[in-house]
Amino acid sequence: MRTVGGILAWSIGVPHAAWQWPPILALGPLWVWLIWSVHHRQGTPLGATLARLDLYFRWFMIVAIVASVALAWADGRLRPYPWLAGKLLIFASLIFSGLMIRLKLPRFSAGFRQLVTSGATPQSDQDMIEGMSACRPYVLYIWFGVAVAALLGILKPGAG
């Protein structure tokens, strides 16, 4: 989303410094590769290292997006595009919601693993119920946030 968003923002006239283009263009493909690698190397030492790297990277992205919006707003680059600032902040919150799901999901995963390997137990059922319940608000927010971000992109409120 960030790579495509950066290109689309540029196409409507949002200025980017030349030094920003390499990270903007590399971010999407590199992040996709990292996520793919985490899932395909799951259960290995490399997979655990990549998962930790992905976790730290997501926290970094949340902070970097919020900071970049604040700086671009302060220097005036985003002021003509308040809807874009909103979309970026929503994107940061979507990454945060994904992190919260990742932190809450192990309980569900433990119950599901029990179900698959040796059958359901009252404890595995309870683990899955509580795991899903803990994740549900974040999943619902992601759906809501994506819809609001899309609406902001269509309506462009505050655009001059």
Would you write up a description of this structure?
With 160 residues, this protein is mainly α. The protein has a domain at 83-154. It is 82% helix and 0% strand. It contains 5 helices and no strands. Helix 1 runs antiparallel to helix 2 (21-40), helix 2 packs antiparallel against helix 3 (45-74) and helix 3 packs antiparallel against helix 4. The longest helix is centred in the middle third of the chain and has 37 residues, at 82-118. The radius of gyration is 19 Å and the shape is elongated. The model has no long low-confidence stretch (mean pLDDT 94).
Total number of beta strands: 0
What gap, in angstroms, lies between the N and C termini? 25 Å
Query: What's the overall geometry?
Result: elongated
H/E order of the elements? HHHHH
Distinct helical segment count = 5
Structural class given helices, strands, pairing?
A: mainly alpha
What is the averaged pLDDT score?
94
Describe the SSE topology.
Elements: H1 2-11, H2 21-40, H3 45-74, H4 82-118, H5 122-155
Task: List descriptors.
160 residues; 82% helix; 5 helices; mainly alpha; elongated
